[in-house]
Amino acid sequence: MAQERTGVSTFKGNPLTLIGPELQVGSQAPDFQLNKSLVDVVSLKDYAGKVKLVSVVPSIDTGVCDAQTRRFNEEASKFGDNVVILTVSVDLPFAQARWCGAAGVDRVVLLSDYKNNNFGEAYGVLIKEFQLDMRAIFVIDANDTIQYVEVLSEMTEHPNYENALNAVKALL
How do the residues of the chain divide into helix, strand and coil, expressed in percent and rounded to 5? Predict the structure, then answer.
């Protein structure tokens, strides 16, 4: 049975239970299986040798998630081919593709944790009460070691964009 952590994060002040480990800087990044489409599945090894900024959002169709993904899409052009920005949510791949088209987002890779929440559980951000992934940022170096972690204490708040981007820049 997976570890549960209550009170780490909240939704509008109400405590949430996060399922999975509390990942730390210096830990090896857990592998994952995420859907790029209904049939295409990717894992951590598909981004081997790259710096990975993993932006986790509860649902792409909400204001903060929309703004977070747009911000990282804008920043992506400042990094070279050795950096990939992944946005993970439990939204269906259809919804992610529709949102990207409508928003003009083309530099961030949207990946879906909808099938079995294995990313959320492996990264300790699966919200038991909602079966969504908690807003978080992970920066993973080219050797798959976690170099930056921010799991938001309040689901409706923005992450610290500058700290996350500076963590990526420090690896280049």
Answer: 25, 30, 45
